[in-house]
Protein 1
Amino acid sequence: MITLKQMETWMIETHRILQEKKDYLTQLDQAIGDGDHGINLVRGFKEVVGNLSAQSSPDIGTLLRNVAMTLLSKVGGASGPLYGTAFLKMSTALKEKVEASPEEFARALAEAADGIQMRGKAQVGDKTMLDVWKPVADLAVKQGSRLSWKDLLECSRQHMETTRDRAAKKGRAAYLGERAVGHLDPGAVSTCYLFEALVKTLTREEATG
Ligand code: ADP
Ligand code: MG
């Protein structure tokens, strides 16, 4: 089972990775956007982590809802509302859960991916964060109770890489269209970090019991 404590650790780990990769995300967004993606996300997740102790959440749903609210108010840009929606959808899917099974978590990821798609109106292949969210959620749902975190991470990394060869159809990068080919999508990369942090957290806790 996935615990409330692990979900908190996921947020701390995400902030740590984003902090470490902030300059890289800035470079990626400078190439095909406006260069603020790393800064936006680090600002948001710093606040998320700061709020963990201030707002002690009784269950996973409440925790993820608080995360969503913080991201919605602090991140800004295109990615703030999209990440905010993703966490809001996950929070609803995991409402009042103190623990979640892999299947329940997989369904929450699927809700998040659908939420991003509904809000951003992108299709898979448009070179956005959805290019990672959607296949990862699909894989998680397909594996269900046999969910392999290693497979999930592999899937996330592979699909992040696919954004390099695509023309951008949504967001700021869409102004570049074909000229965005050859560059990774910053939101796909940050989504990959979110899943790296998740898998790192869950496999570490599993290993130590
Ligand atoms: P902004 O583009 O407003 O500066 P950010 O730099 O924070 O916002 O985020 C850019 C990322 O947001 C992109 O790399 C892309 O992954 C994602 N994005 C932008 N528009 C959409 C959309 N319509 N649907 C899904 N993701 C999107
Ligand atoms: Mg930007």
Protein 2
Amino acid sequence: MCGIVGYIGSNNIKDVLIEGLQELEYRGYDSAGIAVLQNTDFAVYKAVGKLENLRNKAASFAPEGFGIGIGHTRWATHGKPTELNAHPHLGQSSYVVHNGIIENYQELKNELVAQGVSFLSQTDTEVIVHLFEAYLKTAGSPFEAFKQMRARLEGAYAILLVTTSEPETIYFAKHGSPMIVGRNRGGEKFFASSDSPLIGLAQEVVYLKDGDFGYVTPAAITLYDGSGNPAAPLFSTLPESKLSAQKEGFRFFMEKEIYEQGEVLADTMLGRLKEQEVYFEELDPQLFAGVNEIKLCACGTSYHAALASSYLFERHARIRTSVEIASELRYKEPLLSPDTLFVVISQSGETADTLETLKMAKAAEMKTLVICNVDNSSMVRLADASILTRAGIEKGVASTKAFATQMAVLWMLSLAFAKARGTMETGAIAEQIRHLRELPACVRVDDALHERIKRLSKRYLHGHGFFFIGRDVFYPLALEGALKLKEISYLHAEGYPSGEMKHGPIALADPELFTIALMPKNMLYDKTKSNVEELSARDSTICAISDKPFEKADDFIPIHDREHYMLEFFEMMVVLQLLSMEVAVRLGNDVDMPRNLAKSVTVE
Ligand code: M6R
């Protein structure tokens, strides 16, 4: 997602801004820009693509002395990645950068257009600067105009705004998107979307809370809380090492990524959920026209997301859905028919096998869609349409938050399909949307739960194997749980449909066979329970994950009592991620970079 930086001081503004943006690259972006204000003169540079392009454009710009500046890396949501859509956005004499989505931008834009304002970009962001300038005409001061403008915004935002009327001041507001303000003993002030750009520059930072707004000058940081009351900035000291800062206090990137799933899921759904329908701005409604079948194709964790979603597509949209492992599809001389929508799922957008199947689908003149975490990746460029998962850069080789966001997108897409095909009542869709909105809270890691899993993990360091079992969507989740454990603990684990155990694998059951049983209350509980009892009767060691106590389990990990099985799915997903991580930690393995694996598999 987008990244923001800001600076007030005299130490080479351009480098501070661009190097800050470099530190935010991990959030993902497709264009970037900076605006520097010295006296009443603005210097503005924007470029599509990598920061190198921005650096080249601004090569001859060498600001000296005091100035203020704002910078931004943009991950396109409203409007394509072009220079015009890149931030900062200009009014008459002010520039703004923004992270998030202004949900009522169309209404504000109509109002401003009626007043004669012209817009240059297709972004939601541009309304902010024009609205500010509209209020500036009547408000007594730029800050008053900023306050009035902020009061009109709906949605999520982190905003920095600079204006020639106050050339030593940066105005800021935060609601739902991250923003930090920092200072050092030299009087310099900084803004950033996360800690990492500030390490080595600022000694103290304030982590702004939702609703906070105010302004910063060379002399002071002036803060107001969400109710508009003056607030004292609460400073924290920044860690000194960049690596530990990027991990934000977590032991591993994987742990950090598990913990940030609530935040990224909120980003994934931002602007895509209406009361009664799911809306993907990036999809042409024609994509659904004439489609009689869906074929999903992916590798590894993304394949598990595909498999889980096939249950949702058939259940919600009543459309025939098949799922393929990309390396298999490539050589099986498949039947690829033009009335089938070919959907590839990939965190990186570069996995060689998946990319190749996408080329095959294009050659067969199928409609193609990619669900991907990296904009401008090979798959995004090739497919007819793309939906970005907005998980931010995932550094741990073992995928966690990327899977969570893929599942959220696929769940949403199944509802969009259902609506287009008329297979679900509006009320039923609205009900699922209500559950989707619960996802960020549902995946939040509870300290007590993490502690319990940490303690339990010591009993699962040996044995002759693990079976993760479940039914329906919990079968692909079982596959994913087993893959996570394999990847980082190097223990043998298999995912299996619960009902299949008695057709062979149950022969392995003994106390040294560990069964991790996914027992959701809302999906085939009694059926799964019988299968687990069969294993328990043969002395397999059972670790049950459920919201219902299960007396035959040797170990029990409770989840919350949920109303919908997909919420149980997401909560169990977090449990499985934590369990595999804690086992790997106890075995002394490299959690983030397990042996023999690469984050992006670009070879066949
Ligand atoms: O980037 P992709 O989603 O296409 O990658 C596919 C697999 O290589 C990937 O999911 C892999 O299985 C992960 N290491 C799983 O944690």
